[in-house]
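Students often ask why we bother encoding 3D structure as a string. The short answer is that it lets us treat folding as translation between two languages. Here is a chain of 640 residues written in the first language.
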Amino acid sequence: MQLTKIKNKISCCALVTLPFVMTTLYAEEAEPPLSEEAFWQEVPVVMSATRMSQPVVDAPVAVTVIDREMIEASGARQIPELFRLVPGFIVGYRDGNTPSVSYHMSLDRYARRMQVLIDGRSVYTTAIGGIPWATLHITLDDIERIEVVRGPNSASYGANSFLGVINIITKPAVLDRGTSVKVNKGDQGVKDLYLRHGGESGKLDYRVTAGFSADDGFQYRHDYELTKTLSLRADYHATGDDLITMQGGVGRGPRGVENLQADPVLNPPREKIELNHHEHIKWERTLGLGDSLSVQFYHIFQRNFETYTVNNYVLTSAGALQLVLDPMFIDFGRRTERYDLEFQHNTKLNEMWRIVWGGGVRQDTVWGGENLMGNAEIGNHLKQGFINAEWDPKDHWLINLGLMVEDYSTTGTARSPRVGVNYRFSPADSVHFSVSRAIRTPSMFEYAADYAQQATSHYELAGTTVGVGPTISNISWLGTQDTKPEHIRSYELGYTGMVDDGRLSYDAKLFRDEISELITFVQRPVAGDNYDGVADFYENHDALTIKGFEFETTRHFGVGTSARLTYAYADIDNELGNNTTDYSHVAPKHSASLLLIKTFSRGYKGSLGYYYTGEIQGWEGTDLRDPVRRLDLRLAKSTT
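And here it is in the second language, the structure alphabet:
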């Protein structure tokens, strides 16, 4: 939808004071009684900050909860679109089938510095980093809620929980009984079909979902997408204290690939195929009040097929003499496989102390094609242990302590601690201060890349080779297998609260993120049998500091009617040494969102979403992208 141009500057003061203005405007009106279903009468409980269930006011870091009402009202077609509702998040698309979701900064299309969990299973891919959003094997309708930890959380979830953690929690199978069908149809070839069936058999509840999703991508681009998925969730209630959850899924589909920054002859539009599947089993036992044990095992397989051929392309000609490109076969394929075993014990030691502790082992194996990793296979073995403790003397103070220790076969041992102090003014509002350290381990491509694309040529006369031509292109990215983890030290001061029986909630925070050992390209000369020239090496080199302010608030005006507002300001200081890149604009200075929800009579429900992202540096160059404004309108009618 075309929007009228508005001023680029957004008044922080106006955004912060708006919820209080709304409260004043409605204070004089008689409000209808509020049902328990419509509003939280108690402070929301989250579990992703420390692996312990905590009221959000007791969490040591800022946490945003995206619930079912927000998911439905957003009108989102794909999961990444939901994170426009979270302050400080950056959602973008390199092309129509490659979404990117990051927090506080967006350095490249892979968004390698975010951890994403689905029911405790990490879907972060270790081959090139990032998240395969199109083939997660879940739909929007499978999700019960999403908890977003806005800040480093390696103390709870280990490496790659660098800038934040997205924890997607799916609905128990018992909540999906019967059969349902969902269909989407729209412009640009949008066609979605989802079939879901849920049922029970004795102590077993199950849900099966089959999905088909396709679109043509961006207009005038070769970036179409077609994905077929099949997923299963089964919950077996073995005893009153034991629950076994089994999940699995498979997804496959072609994607259009087009690199506008590359030579269309050497890097032509083409098709790649993505295939992945997972199997996940988790056993949970309740040992007593506040005491539980869980063990989970999962396996993930990801395969990307991407090859193409360039045959005898004529570059130039002079009469009968032609300069012809030598035949090229390019293989950018890759394969990733992961086995992960983890146990966790939550226990209450006494009236003041609660702890959660555990550990796990993981084996990652990555193979890269001839032009990606030289047909090499590399493994990475992880052993980890963690502990989080909460001390609550039942007065105004609360202290959270956390530590994760990890040992990688590739990068060695790392420790990620966190200390958080909360002061509660009441059970419904508190101020918190936390200091944490986190790491991001290099992807296997950053660690052991052997990317080479050398285009040579020859001269032909009347179809006969008569001489060797010049080298047309010589590109190489190399990993030395000596790349170390990136580091971040984060400081956060936040305020969280609820008033008016939960009708108004708000969350504000100041932050400072100090990032060092950032992995980047450093050019160096290299010579060998297959390559001679200048190569880009992945090395730990750069540093930057991000500081800023974030705010979110939700106001309920009555049953089924609410307004949600978010705002984020970020300022980047990258004058911290001899950086290879200018990071000044890898995050927008200003970003904001507004979601209005209204329930009408006769089963109608409408929503309006407005999203603003300030200018930001493009992924493929130094040019700044113009501010983005987006307006979503939704109207739905329930027939039940």
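Translate back mentally: The chain has five helices and 39 strands. Keep this in mind for the problem set.
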